[in-house]
Structure formats: C-alpha cells, structure tokens
C-alpha cells in the first residue's frame, strides 16, 4: 500500500516530542515536508509557508497542523481548498465558529478532517468508557491540578486573551470525560479566578449536571505544588471508577485494572490513517465547547497577581 | 385542518407583547395552556409547572418556551421526551452544549425544534440577504448602541454571570449578520469592557473576518444616550447596503428600499407551523456561538462601575 504523504506544519515541542516519533513508527505515513518559519529537519523538504509547499513539486496527501491555534483556521482552510486531508492539534481552533467552517469545508470536498484530543488515547480511557457504558452514574469529580511554573515555563501566551489559562491542560480532562461518560452534560455554574495582571484563569471550579441530573464537579488549579493531580473519579451504583495520571492508570474500586506506556499520539495517527482510508472525518468540538460555555457562563473573581 | 395545540411556558413581557398576539392571529395555532408560576390568562388552562401540564388531560402538540434561558434546557428536554414540538426563545440556551443536546434529542424523536432569532424576520432582512447573495463583500460595520437605562430598566440579571450584558441586544445583530452575509465569519480579536461592579460587558469592540478576508467590525454600547443605533452597513463592490432600526428599514446606496410594520413574531410562528408540517427542525446556534467565541477570545478591560 502506498503510504500517506504527510506534511507537518509547525515544528515546536509537541511536533518534535510526539508527532515525529509517531509518524516514523507508522508505516502508513511518509513524512515528505516540514513547514516552519524557523526550524528544519534533516532529509525532509522544508518550506517557510504552507502556500509555498502547496504550489511546489512536493506532493502531499495530508497535513498535520501543530501550530498554535490562532493561525490554524487559515492554514486548514488553505490545505482543504488544495484537496488535502487535515489533522488539527488541540484545541482545534481559537473559536468554535472557525472549526464549524472547517467541518463544512471538509464535508463539501469529501476530505478527512480530524480534531485530535490526545488524552482520549491514554490507555485507561477506552476500557473506562466500556465499563461506564452500562452503569448508572451517581457523581463525577474532576481534579486537574498542576504547577504552571513546572509544566509551562515561559509560556506567556497561555495568560493572554484566548490563551485559556488553566483550561489549556484542563481541556484534556474535558476531552476524556466527554468520551467516557454515557450521557452528555452541561455547565450550570462556574467560577473563574483570574490573576489581576492576567487575562486567563489560574483556577476554576465548575459544576455540571449530566442529562440524568448527576452532578459533575471540576476543580482546576494551576498553582498546585507537591503532588500533581490529573484525576477523574466516577461514582456509579456498581462501584467507583478512577482514572489517574491523565488516563494512564485505571482503577475500579481501588484496584489497578490497566496501566501502560504512553500510546496517545500513535493512537491519533492510527485513527487518522483509518479515517482517510474510510473517507470519513472526526470533528468533535465538545471539549472546546465546554470551555467556551465556561467563559460564557461563569462568574469571574480577581485572584492575586501571577508572577512566574 | 386541525390547529396545532400550543402551550406557552413563561408569561412575562415578551410572551404578552409578542407571542400571545402572534398566536391569536395565526389560525394554524390554538393556545390551549399557560405554564407560569405566577401569571394566568383568562379562558386558558393554567399550570404552575410544565410537568403538571404534561400529565394532565389537556393535550398539547407543541410548547413555546419564553422563560429566561437558565431553566430552558430542562423544560425543553421534558417537552421533547413527552413527544412535543418545541420553540425556544432567544438565546436558545444558557450554554451551547445544552442546545446541542436538545438538537440530538429532537432528531432522535423526529420532533420539531426551532431556535428563534426574531430579528431575522424584520422586514429588511430577507431582501438584504438576497441582494448580498450575488455581491462581493468589501467590509461590514455593525453599530448596536442603546441606552440600557431606557430599554432594560431594573433588569439586574442582565449584568450577572451568563446575563450577556450588551450582548443581550447585540445577539440580534449577530442573528441578522449570520443570515444576510453570503460567507461565514470568525472573530479574530475583541475587547470587552466590564464595569468594575458587574460580571457582564457594557461595551465591546469585535473584529471579525469573513472566509474571504473581508473585515467585519462590531461596536456595541449599552451607554448610548441621544440617538440609538441598531445599524448594519455592508460595503460591496456594487454599492452599499444599510439596515437600520434593527432591520426594519433597508437602504441601498442611501435610498430607502423597504420598510414596514413589525412582523417579526408572526414570522417566527409562520416558520414554526411550516417546520411542524414538514417534520423538520431549525437549530441554528451561530449567533450564540459568536457570543461564546467573544467571551472565549476577547481581552477584558475594567470599565467604571455601572449604577442604574
């Protein structure tokens, strides 16, 4: 089978740490071009702009967009207009409206568009979804608490308008919860704590209810020192499910059921290859929609200034 | 033809001023019940809760939800589960996620769900859409400037979290612009001015671009004294279109082309009757999605305290 000729747009940390090894390990893909203003990769054609690649003699079937979200819509639109399949890093856009536009553009051209939520490919997530599918949910607690100084050093953009603040990591939690819970859920109340010298929240408490009324409480914190928490607990009438380490460990009633090596990005590329083979798309904005709902509905309180 | 037996849920100002006369004037509807905690209407069955109506011997085919947005999702879900068609006043929900849930619930049951955007039925809107459909857009200016003290006296909820502030009227502008412009558009930058003693913006400037790059600038103001503005100007390569008075007057190159009496709510009920007859739904969240995008992406600056 001829591999899918892929271009990677944006060659930052996530592209080097995750995309490049996942592409190299998957025989269904062949990396044929890098688009980056500054960075190059030995042995791979390099372009400083996507438009230059698309008018060159290097043929690509698909592009993976690993740039920050702001320019992503224009790049994706350009790629779709040129007949290329598109993978979008998370979050899939700076706004919901632009993702909806891409969904329509891909559908009109029968091209594959994939919104990626890498945490959904953590090893505990799929078995958690299967276990919960048949059980009555009583309550859900999301604790996503990390030290921004450790995990996001020097990332000033995270505090800017549109930078999402503590929702930058917490959107991973929302991507897991929207996947594993059997029913949709909706924000009823939220509080965002925004440092007096920043635009984006550093802490948040969110109260959702699912369609059957079960409470879902999320506590998000960017100032967590000591033990870090990327945990989701689900109480059911048939015992408690717990995902820890961002989905890498699954416990049922305190007993470790699954753990394993990081397989998230290989899982994304496996899904991308299958979508292309099937002529299908996977456009799910629900995690970003919950974040937008939180910004729309929540009360804002002023938190002390944050200085890195 | 048997009329559609309709229940009105919520009997506040908008229900009395707009819904009741529109229903009375349309022979395709028969008002058979009012659901309201406090208010009643002579000669119409009255219930204090929707659940009581649905288990009573009064048969309804459809419900129009005129309550504030916060309880609307639970009410709509209840009505759909009981097999009733549903009309949602604007905005269709407190969050985008809950409207998506209703869309799916209606589709699963083959029931009609209508998100209503009354300003789209203003007399100038449909001819504006037709005129713009064939023309190249150069720039769009939205000026939505009104005096909150005149138009929203005592409406403290408008300033609360989720109350939308100046977006409560401006969502009408967005409902018109999303209807008349031939291409989708996306927020690229926004500034929200929030009074230091309130949660919701009192002024906003929003910069959008349409899919072909044309700039769309919206200036929203809740502190406008003197002349009020509910105006949309569209520069095309073939002249300028202007909608004023919230869409009630249409000008092309300064010449008045259309004006007429208020026909917005009769238009909504006409559309609702047709959707029910056709077994169709009209679920368009694009105006609310733009508002959520504005809250997600915009910079916030502190404005002076607002005291009514």
TrEMBL record, chains A, B:
Protein name, as recorded: Gfo/Idh/MocA family oxidoreductase
Pfam families: GFO_IDH_MocA
InterPro entries, per database record: Gfo/Idh/MocA-like_OxRdtase_N, Gfo/Idh/MocA_oxidrdct_glycsds, NAD(P)-bd_dom_sf
Transmembrane segments: none
The organism's place on the tree of life at top rank: Bacteria
Ranges for domain Gfo/Idh/MocA-like oxidoreductase N-terminal: 4-114
Gene3D superfamilies hit by this protein: Dihydrodipicolinate Reductase, domain 2 (3.30.360.10), NAD(P)-binding Rossmann-like Domain (3.40.50.720)
Organism of provenance: Caulobacter segnis
């Amino acid at each position: 089978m001829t591999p899918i000729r892929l271009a990677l747009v944006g060659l930052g940390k996530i592209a080097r740490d995750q995309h490049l090894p996942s592409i190299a390990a998957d025989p269904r893909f062949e990396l044929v071009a890098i688009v980056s203003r500054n960075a190059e990769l030995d042995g791979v054609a390099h372009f400083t702009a996507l438009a230059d690649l698309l008018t060159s003699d290097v043929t690509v079937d698909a592009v993976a967009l690993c740039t920050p979200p702001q320019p992503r819509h224009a790049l994706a639109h350009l790629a779709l207009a040129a007949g290329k399949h598109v993978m979008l890093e998370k979050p899939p856009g700076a706004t919901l409206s632009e993702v909806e536009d891409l969904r329509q553009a891909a559908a009109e051209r029968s091209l594959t568009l994939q919104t990626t939520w890498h945490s959904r490919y953590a090893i505990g997530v799929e078995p958690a979804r299967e276990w919960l599918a048949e059980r009555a949910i009583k309550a859900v607690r999301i604790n996503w608490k990390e030290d921004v100084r450790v995990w996001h050093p020097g990332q000033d953009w995270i505090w800017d308008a549109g930078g999402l603040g503590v929702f930058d990591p917490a959107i991973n939690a929302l991507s897991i919860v929207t996947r594993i819970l059997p029913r949709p859920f909706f924000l009823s109340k939220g509080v965002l704590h925004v440092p007096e010298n920043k635009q984006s929240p550093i802490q948040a408490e969110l109260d959702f209810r699912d369609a059957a009324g079960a409470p879902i409480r999320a506590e998000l914190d960017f100032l967590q020192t000591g033990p870090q928490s990327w945990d989701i607990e689900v109480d059911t009438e048939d015992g408690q499910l717990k995902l820890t380490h961002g989905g890498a460990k699954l416990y049922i009633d305190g007993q470790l059921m699954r753990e394993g090596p990081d397989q998230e990005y290989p899982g994304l590329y496996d899904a991308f290859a299958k979508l292309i083979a099937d002529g299908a798309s996977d456009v799910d904005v629900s995690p970003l929609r919950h974040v937008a709902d939180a910004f729309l509905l929540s009360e804002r309180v002023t938190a002390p200034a944050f200085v890195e």
